[in-house]
């Protein structure tokens, strides 16, 4: 067997494993620890609820500011790149950078670090005062030691500083309330 | 003898003229920061009602608030009155001294119920109509010691009633006798702390006081307020501020704007009953620090142009903080003060540095949301605003519409119809700015741009994140020139902004707002846009 073909077959065998190689501890509701995180801009609170379904990972964001509650979900597939409409990011709300809801973000995702880190990369369409443009976004959701804390590190192609968000696991019973 | 009398009259009239027609002598008190219902509020409420009555025929009574009070200008203005108007002030150190000094002013007292907060507003209404001072029960011995008689007693009258029921009763009893040119929305702080600093003005002018909510989820209060609004005179003003916790600034300003009424805040703005007695000092005219000729045409370079605006009430926050003058900063002067607090405007003008530039607004002759103003009222209101701008030598007009926003976030955009109206009603401005938080309404017609804020600096935001935010906007708007309009929230520290600027991705230049508008008029690199029906709305209206 030729080496190249061997690599392809090996890759095909490993891909589904990599796609499903998640740590079940990620599942559940995570609440932002604002004291340990990059300052939210505009938002008051943030929860992320993570659900796994095969190679698909759904991240639901429950956000608040003033009297407004915002719930939005991104379902990414660690096996396939996808174009997602209404891609949600924790934006800096005092910047005139607006989502373009009718257009899709091109999103890829995968597991790193033995399934303890979810990597998401997205090309996010946004509107600014000079018109439409794209922001490249790189997220790592890292499950920390003990499985009780989740660290989100977000990089923007347009931002000089990472956004670092610490989340704490909300116990299942409390999450139901 | 006639010659002597004539000379005396001439001297007196000249002296009065030199004072800007204000009083020659007055009394003052110093307040502390204790506004607790269970603490310092009752005595302050009594003194403020006394102030409203004492200042009815002339300015006699001024109150100085300490640093830490939201309106930080009372001390500088006190000094200004002495220096520029020659007012000789005498201090009153206690409530007892104040009641002694002004013993002939009130005809009696009305007792409010400390267990029922809105009863204080009802008492203020009665105070204006009956020339009474408002007291809580522990102050009755003091007030009686000064020979004052009870006029009304609200203790127990409203126990267990809703705010709507209380104010409906007050409407039944007093509304007919109150002025219909204004009312006093004495909201703001509620509960254990109340801060009715503006009540003197309402007492003086016999306004109806209330803190009804403009919240669709409290329909009884909204319905009653609508009833009051429907009976005010065209062009009326709501003084005060919305009630915290019962509704939002956006809801209340939207409601008032739908009737074409103006909002003049805040509920704790002090001394209007005194300030209104002064005009500008003789010979004084407003001369703004223009940085560019009105008909100039500037050619922008390929760089990022930033301009900073502070639009909150000019007497709040930044003006008195260190660092002002280090950066070009545009200030939203409260235009309505021309009519009832001109000395304050003169004080600001006098203390302005060459980097301070005054602009008109907000949205009209005072605070309004233009998307909600009835078409028939838009022209007369903007004529009033335009006249005030001319008086204040202002050339840029600021607009804000948070009808569909939530707090300072969300949809702050103008419909095309609203933009059309502004362009039609302000032919003499060099441009418009829009927003409070960021917004995306932009236009350029003839030489007049309309630019919205691309960024709002929250005073609590860490400066390193402010740097990152602005640099990200610069990266996301790659065409040069990029016109980046920044709103500076009231309590920001100018020194920290200077530090932010040293860390921006260049080439950048901070320019005064009039220069910014002229540059933006010369090369449109921003997209013309108006509020779109599909844009998210965070308050759906009434």
Description of the molecule:
The complex is a heterodimer of chains A (177) and B (542). Chain A has 177 residues and is mostly beta strands. Chain A has one domain (27-170): Beta Barrel (Lipocalin). Chain A is built from two helices and eleven strands; from the N terminus they run H-E-E-E-E-E-E-E-E-E-E-E-H. In chain A, strands 1, 2, 3, 4, 5, 6, 7, 8, 9, 10 and 11 form an eleven-stranded antiparallel sheet that branches. The longest helix of chain A is centred in the first third of the chain and has 18 residues, at 3-20. Chain A starts with a helix and ends with a helix. Residues 8-19 of chain A have low confidence and may be disordered. Chain B is an alpha/beta fold and 542 residues long. Chain B has two domains: 15-275, no CATH class; 304-522, GxGYxYP glycoside hydrolase, C-terminal domain (TIM Barrel). In chain B, 34% of the residues lie in helices and 18% in strands. Chain B is built from 18 helices and 22 strands. Chain B has helices at residues 2-18, 41-54, 74-85, 95-101, 118-130, 140-145, 163-174, 199-204, 219-231, 249-258, 272-275, 337-340, 342-350, 375-391, 416-425, 463-476, 494-501, 513-522, and strands spanning 25-30, 61-64, 88-91, 108-111, 132-135, 149-153, 182-188, 209-210, 237-243, 262-264, 304-310, 329-332, 356-359, 396-399, 404-406, 409-411, 431-434, 443-445, 448-452, 455-457, 482-488, 508-510. In chain B, the strands form six sheets. In chain B, strands 11, 12, 13, 20, 21 and 22 form a six-stranded parallel sheet that branches. In chain B, strands 8-7-9-10 form a four-stranded parallel sheet. A four-stranded mixed sheet of chain B has the order 14-17-19-18, covered by helices on one side. Chain A binds chain B through residues 38-39, 41-42, 65-68, 92-98, 126-131, 133, 135, 156-161, and chain B through 248, 406-410, 437-440, 442, 452-458, 460-462, 464-465, 468-469, 471-473, 475-479, 482-483, 525-527, 538.
């Amino acid at each position: 067997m030729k080496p190249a073909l061997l690599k392809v077959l090996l890759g095909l065998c490993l891909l589904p494993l990599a796609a499903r190689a998640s740590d079940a501890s990620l599942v559940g509701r995570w609440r932002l620890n604002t004291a340990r995180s990059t300052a939210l801009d505009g938002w008051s609170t943030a929860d992320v609820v993570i659900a796994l379904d095969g190679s698909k990972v759904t991240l639901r964001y429950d956000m608040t500011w003033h009297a407004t509650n915002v719930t939005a979900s991104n379902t990414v597939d660690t096996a396939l790149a996808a174009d997602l409409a209404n891609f949600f990011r924790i934006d800096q709300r005092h910047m005139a950078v607006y989502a373009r809801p009718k257009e899709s973000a091109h999103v890829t995702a995968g597991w790193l670090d033995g399934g303890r880190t979810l990597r998401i990369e997205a090309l996010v369409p946004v509107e600014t005062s000079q018109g439409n443009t794209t922001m490249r976004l790189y997220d790592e959701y890292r499950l920390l030691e003990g499985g009780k804390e989740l660290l989100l590190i977000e990089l923007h192609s347009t931002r000089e500083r990472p956004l670092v968000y610490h989340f704490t696991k909300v116990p299942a019973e409390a999450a139901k309330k | 003898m006639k010659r002597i009398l004539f000379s005396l009259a001439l001297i007196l009239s000249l002296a009065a003229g030199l004072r800007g027609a204000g009083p020659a002598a007055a009394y003052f008190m110093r307040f502390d920061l204790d506004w607790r219902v269970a603490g310092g509020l009752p005595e302050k409420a009594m003194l403020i009602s006394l102030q409203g009555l004492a200042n009815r025929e002339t300015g006699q009574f001024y109150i100085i608030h300490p640093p830490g009070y939201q309106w930080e200008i009372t001390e500088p203005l006190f000094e200004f009155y002495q220096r520029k108007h020659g007012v000789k002030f005498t201090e009153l150190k206690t409530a007892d001294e104040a009641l002694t000094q002004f013993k002939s002013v009130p005809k009696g007292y009305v007792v409010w119920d400390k267990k029922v907060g809105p009863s204080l507003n009802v008492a203020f209404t009665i105070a204006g109509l009956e020339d009474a001072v408002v007291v809580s029960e522990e102050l009755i011995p003091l007030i009686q010691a000064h020979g004052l008689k009870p006029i009304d007693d609200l203790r127990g009258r409203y126990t267990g009633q809703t705010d709507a029921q209380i104010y409906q009763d007050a409407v039944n009893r007093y509304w007919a006798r109150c002025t219909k040119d204004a009312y006093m929305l004495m909201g703001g702080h509620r509960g254990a702390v109340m801060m009715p600093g503006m009540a003197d003005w309402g007492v003086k002018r016999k306004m109806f006081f209330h803190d009804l909510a403009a919240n669709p989820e409290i329909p009884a209060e909204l319905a009653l307020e609508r009833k009051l609004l429907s009976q005010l005179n065209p062009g009326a003003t709501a003084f005060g501020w919305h009630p915290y916790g019962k509704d939002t600034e956006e809801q209340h300003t939207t409601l008032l704007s739908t009737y074409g009424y103006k909002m003049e805040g805040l509920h704790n703005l002090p001394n209007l009953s005194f300030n209104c007695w002064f005009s500008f000092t003789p010979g004084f005219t407003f001369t703004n620090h223009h940085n560019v000729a009105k008909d100039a045409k500037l050619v922008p370079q390929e760089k990022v142009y930033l301009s900073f605006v502070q639009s909150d009430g000019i007497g709040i926050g930044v003006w008195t903080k260190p660092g002002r003058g280090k950066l070009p900063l545009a200030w939203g002067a409260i235009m309505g003060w021309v009519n009832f607090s001109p000395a304050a405007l003169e004080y600001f003008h006098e203390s302005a540095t060459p980097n301070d530039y005054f602009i008109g607004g907000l949205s009209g002759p005072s605070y309004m949301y233009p998307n909600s103003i009835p078409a028939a009222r838009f022209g007369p209101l903007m004529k009033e605003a335009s006249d005030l701008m001319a008086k204040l030598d202002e050339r840029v007009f600021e607009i804000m519409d948070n009808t569909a926003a939530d707090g300072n976030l969300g949809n702050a955009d103008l419909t095309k119809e609203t933009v059309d109206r502004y362009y039609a009603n302000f032919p003499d401005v060099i441009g418009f700015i829009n927003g409070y938080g960021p917004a995306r309404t932009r236009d350029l017609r003839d030489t007049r741009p309309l630019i919205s804020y691309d960024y709002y600096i929250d005073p609590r935001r860490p400066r390193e994140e402010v740097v990152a935010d602005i640099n990200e906007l610069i990266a996301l708007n790659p065409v040069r020139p990029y016109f980046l309009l920044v709103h500076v929230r009231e309590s920001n520290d100018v020194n920290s902004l200077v530090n932010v600027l040293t860390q921006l991705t260049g080439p950048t230049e901070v320019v005064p707002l009039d220069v910014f508008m002229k540059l933006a008029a010369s090369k449109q690199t921003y997209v013309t846009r108006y509020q779109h029906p599909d844009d998210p709305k965070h308050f759906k209206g009434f």
